[in-house]
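thoughts on both lines:
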Amino acid sequence: MGLFKRNPFGHILFLKKWLIRIMGTMTHRRYRGFNELKIEGSEIFKELPDNGVLFVSNHQTYFADVVAMFHVFNASLSGRTDSIKNVGYLWQPKMNLYYVAAKETMQAGLLARILAYAGAITVERTWREKGKEVNRQVKMSDITNISKALEDGWVITFPQGTTKPFKPIRKGTAHIIRQYKPIVIPIVIDGFRRSFDKKGVVIKKKGILQSMVIKPPLDIDYENDSIDDIVEKLEYAIEQHPSFLKVIPQEELEAEEELNKKRQWEY
């Protein structure tokens, strides 16, 4: 790798690699130490092509979810199935791994900007800004950047666009799937909102079992499935369809809602 070689977004790969190594080493004990991360299905990563893959997941914190995914993806690619034992897998991380995040979130402080350099594709939310409801057009440059990332590698997205559970899937993700036809891999996470604060920076509670389940590719008919069809498939795949509410304890949902009322702004 040339010292100043850049990715399609102009990021220097040498610098990005060292950011991933350092930040990965600093965060490893959050998932294997203070808390434990149970992983299922990570063997699929070695079977995937090097680009054109879209990972869709539910969302529980701003940063801890995607950092955990960086750990799991790289560990699996280095031969550690369903394990992040031995942080040495970060020495040669996957450099064309990206994630979609709100622009205002990734500009909020030095830590966010560092994490953004490690692989964020920042987009402007069309429905919410600084805690207030808005209604604006999708920026075509945001769509172009996501397509550019898919052409170069793998992209992680959280199609609900919020850390609140069981909120609607944003149709923009379905449009991207239908237009660019990526392989779609669903991921279901749990335990992160109990382990961390909402930003995913502060460890709120230790001894929590976090989980990450990686599912087989979603069966999508890119030509004939409607946007609503794809949205429904995503809801079921990441277990955020309203029917899953029946298996969530009511007291847990009420406690989460009470916490949300106290928060001043939301990703």
Summary: Residues 6 and 12 are 4 Å apart (CA to CA). The longest helix spans residues 13-27. The radius of gyration is 18 Å. The beta strands are 36-40, 53-57, 97-102, 120-123, 128-129, 132-133, 154-157, 183-190, 209-214.
